[in-house]
Amino acid sequence: NAGVTQTPKFRILKIGQSMTLQCTQDMNHNYMYWYRQDPGMGLKLIYYSVGAGITDKGEVPNGYNVSRSTTEDFPLRLELAAPSQTSVYFCASSLGTSYNEQFFGPGTRLTVL
Amino acid sequence: AQTVTQSQPEMSVQEAETVTLSCTYDTSENNYYLFWYKQPPSRQMILVIRQEAYKQQNATENRFSVNFQKAAKSFSLKISDSQLGDTAMYFCASILGGDKIIFGKGTRLHILP
Q: Has residue A80 got a pLDDT over 70?
C-alpha cells in the first residue's frame, strides 16, 4: 500500500513551458486534492475532485487544469508556466470530506525560471 | 469570508516542556471540522489531531490535545512532554462548510535539546 505518490519530486521549467504533475493513490479514495505551498505559507487549494469525472475549482485555479478519468489518478496540468507558479505542490486524497483525514503525497518542488 | 488564523509564526521550547500553539477561525457555520497537521522537514503532511465542532469534549491523542472554545472560535494545540521529533511546521485547518479545507499559515515549532 503506497498511499499517495507524486512524480516528479523536482522539476525546473522555463517560462512558457508546460508540464503535468502526476498523482496516484491506491486507497480507493473518492476525494482527491491539489494544493500549492509557497515559502512560509500554508496550503492553498488549486483543484479538487469528489470522484471520477468530477472536478471543481479551489482557491487558486488560474493557470492550472485537472482531469479525473479514474479513481486512482488526478494529474495537474500547468500550461504556459510562469514564475508565480514556483511552489511546492501537494496532492492529497481522502475517503470523503468533513471529518475524514486527508493523506498527502510527498510533494513536487517546481521552479519556473 | 471563512478564515483560519495562526498568530504565532515561530516558537521554541526546551525538550520535555509543554507548548501551546494557537489557532482562531471565522465561520458562520454551526457544524464544522477542525484539524492540526504536522509538516516535518521531510515535507510529509501528517494529521495530528481532529475535532468535530458539535462535540464539546476536547480531542486527545497521546501527548497531543486540543483546547476547543467554540464561542471564542479558538482551537489551540497543546503538546505535552515535547520531544525533538516534534520539531516541525504545524498547520491548523478547518472544513468550515462544503468540501474544501482551509489551512492557516502555520507555526514553525523548534524543540531544543
A: yes
